Automatic annotation (TrEMBL):
Name this polypeptide is given: Nucleoside phosphorylase domain-containing protein
Superkingdom of the source species: Eukaryota
Cited Gene3D superfamilies: Designed single chain three-helix bundle, Nucleoside phosphorylase domain
InterPro entries named in the record: NLR-like, Nucleoside_phosphorylase_d, Nucleoside_phosphorylase_sf
Gene Ontology biological-process annotations: nucleoside metabolic process
Domain Nucleoside phosphorylase: 24-290
Amino acid sequence: MARTEEKKRQLTHKDYTVAWVVVLEVELTPAIKLLDDEHERLPRSDKDDNNYILGQSGQHNVAITCMPYCGTNAAAHTVTNMLRTFPNIRFGLLVGIGGGVPRSSETSPEEDIRLGDVVVSTPKYGHGGVIQYDMGRWEGDGHFKPQSHLNSPPSLLLNAIKELGSRHSLNSGRMDQYITDGRTERAAFPGRDQDRLFRSDYAHVSGNGCKTCDRQKTITRGKRQSDKPVVHEGLIASGNALIRSPQHRDKLRESWDVDCFEMEAAGLMNDFPCLVIRGISDYCDSHKNDAWQPYAALTAAAYAKDLLGVIQGHHVIAEPTATEKVNAPKQDSDSRLSAQDLAPLNDRLNILEQRLQTWDWKLGSMVDRRDSSGQVRELGHRLETLNARLDGLETMISGANSMQSRANQLNERVLELETAMAKATGRSLGETMSSLDYNRLDVSEYGTVGRIEAGRAVVVRKGGGPTRILFKQRFDRVPHVQITPERLSTKNFKNFWLYLYNPGWPCVDQEGFEVGSFIAEGHQIIFRWLAVEIV
């Protein structure tokens, strides 16, 4: 689309407000081809070894650069130089290919992730849109706990994602047209028959294709109504290690419901306001090859251009520069939040700290008993360590960001103590359940609500009958209850929602509900629930 045959316009370094970062040549090609207008090159600043393609996309002047090699360190180096040369960059788009995380067989074809689809980094489960998979630890139950928290994309981009998603649902987006405009012979759609997902236990045979692989080992998936790529908004896992293991892929999906893997974003999210856009070119297994890369790179670039099209130029200019955002003291940005914004978070912290004090007393009394087991005594020592860590958190409280960090760490401690109590006592913890964040629960669909209770409890089934979780409050009538598992220790248990409108299984009475039917003996599960009494 860029006009290269005419004399190119030449702007100044200060005129460029959007950074477009790619890693591979196959990603650079559609980025250039989809420019509305290509500009004359400008000299680089001292010590900047990047090459730039400059141009216009919609209302924005865009600087495109291709990283010299993959990885988080290369990404950080590239962007540092870029911001030095183009001081008025407001945000960046990391656009290219990634490895997709297919869904379970129960997932609808449209919600399943297929080759050629696009994944956009979007905040979810308390994470900013990107999880660093090579910085954290694997728990005994197979759950991965990240050790670093990466920032969310700017609100300007998150709002644009919502608007564009609505436009796509109304078939008014322009992504499909941009795919047509940017298509080359190399970037043609390979055909859905070339989209093969092999079983996790079946390794690739040989070569750069799967011609010699056993087709009987592929997973049968539902057919979509259209071959058009689907856009998924969710978490992207990022790190320096190339993932070619379906076992690791599936574990991250089970732990955090990630949609995609890539290798650059983790090096940028905390030092550069940006959004990650990845076209799916493989399934992160040994069958990974290059066949889908050109088309996947094109679908990602088409979405990025469509996204820029819904953002007004003057809104971008009104944003602080990327350098200003990175260098701004955290308290400056926090001070723009009102007391009303901070109140729900304060309430949540108070609840968590009260819960910790309760467990402190309970575990302490258990340790003092003569018949206490060695396991319980060990839990007491762990509690002392946890409390010491919590004391250290007080020095971090200096605004909303520090409060959020404190809340996240308190949540981790609460979850750890819940598990410890369940293992030590062998009973369900309905009486020690912790409240959820009420602000994240949408109950408007239930009409007039009399009372609401939200909670979480660890259940370890020891056998000898069902396990019951008790409500803190007794309802006058059988409430409408929704239950969902938060974390599982067995793959035999599937995620689900229960909608209970009537008395009976598994909601026994107004005081609680039984969950033992769903848990194999010896297994542990953490339930979240929302109980609503309709009046």
